[in-house]
Specification:
globular; 5 helices; alpha+beta; 3-stranded antiparallel beta sheet; 14 strands
């Protein structure tokens, strides 16, 4: 027997049409996207990598006006970048060179600088400079960047990353640092917010590492390959970025009373065992970091209306967290 398609009655058809119209008039539920912070908080323990205490520089400033302690923790740059300066910094810390020095320069939207107030600061009124420890290395300008990697044959291995205004590519290295480079493979660390660099005089001077600064403003990428980047502040940058701005040339404090005394700077592993800082960074090769980076570039959580579709390398900071002591 031949079967014919069933035809709904006009009443049933109209009811279905009205229901469909009612649904289309309502907003369909939006997909919920986690924020970058939520992604980091949910990252599994296996996606976090420990930072050795020996790779941390602990700076204790004089207490603030309320008597509260001010500690700044700096992670030193890993190989292969800036290792000549890193070696000097380790020697300077071991010699307790920075004890009794000060924060001498705070330039708005740029840098905070510390070290000997008499170094390259004619407004300080200081006529002598603190003696440097023996054995510091003089580093050549070519070490601002790292040469291309060769595989031992004839090939230079090229590195690919995202586009950038200051380099052929930028990327987050496997060691958890933002780096930039050329199509032929030269690479160098980047001046992002919180980056720590070496103060120097005019070329060919490259600085010893005795004068250090950190970025407290928009990333000054024009400094890349012109000054050595030796680390980044991972805790306590608010103690530096909130300081009064210097009124002298380049933000130096002309008034000595404005300088913030430095009580000590030590390598993390030089502190007593129970006081050594413990930190971890999010593995940049892991799935959690990939999701985090995408979320930073394409904010879809409820506050945002339009995803940007991209992000500057410095706008994707590497998550770092303090680990509670056992």
């Amino acid at each position: 027997m031949t079967k014919f398609p069933l035809i709904a009655s006009p009443i049933v058809f109209m009811a279905a049409l009205m229901a469909a119209s009612s649904l289309s008039a309502q907003e369909l539920p939006k997909k919920e996207y986690p924020s970058p912070n939520a992604i980091v908080d949910a990252a599994p323990a296996s996606d976090w990598k420990a930072i050795a205490a020996s790779d941390l520089l602990v700076m204790d400033l004089a207490p603030d006006a309320k008597g509260e302690a001010r500690r700044v923790v700096i992670q030193l740059m890993p190989p292969p970048f800036s290792q000549g300066w890193i070696g000097n910094i380790r020697k300077l810390a071991a010699a307790k060179f920075w004890d009794g020095t000060s924060i001498n320069r705070v330039q708005d939207n740029y840098v905070v600088q510390w070290g000997d107030a008499g170094y390259d600061n004619p407004e300080s009124g200081e006529t002598e400079q603190k003696a440097l420890p023996e054995g510091l290395e003089e580093i050549a300008e070519r070490h601002y960047q790292v040469e291309p990697y060769h595989d031992g044959k004839t090939t230079t291995l090229k590195v690919e990353g995202q586009a950038d205004s200051y380099a052929d590519w930028v990327k987050h290295s496997a060691m958890g640092w933002p780096i930039a480079g050329t199509a032929s493979g030269w690479s160098w660390p980047i001046h992002c917010y919180g980056a720590v660099g070496v103060g120097r005089n005019l070329s060919p001077n490259t600085g010893t590492g005795a004068e250090l600064y950190t970025v407290i403003g928009h990333a000054p990428r024009h400094l890349d390959r012109n000054i050595a980047v030796v680390g980044r502040i991972i805790e306590g940058i608010d103690h530096l970025s909130s300081l009064p701005r210097g009124k002298g040339q380049l933000g130096f404090y002309a008034d000595a009373s404005k300088r913030v005394p430095i009580q000590s700077i030590r390598l993390g592993n030089a502190l007593p065992a129970g006081e050594q800082p413990q930190f971890e960074y999010l593995d940049t090769d892991g799935k959690a970091f990939a999701s985090y980076a995408d979320a930073r570039a394409n904010r879809r959580d409820p506050f945002f209306i339009k995803p940007a579709g991209g992000a500057d390398i410095c706008n994707i900071p590497i998550p770092v967290r303090r680990v509670k002591a056992d």
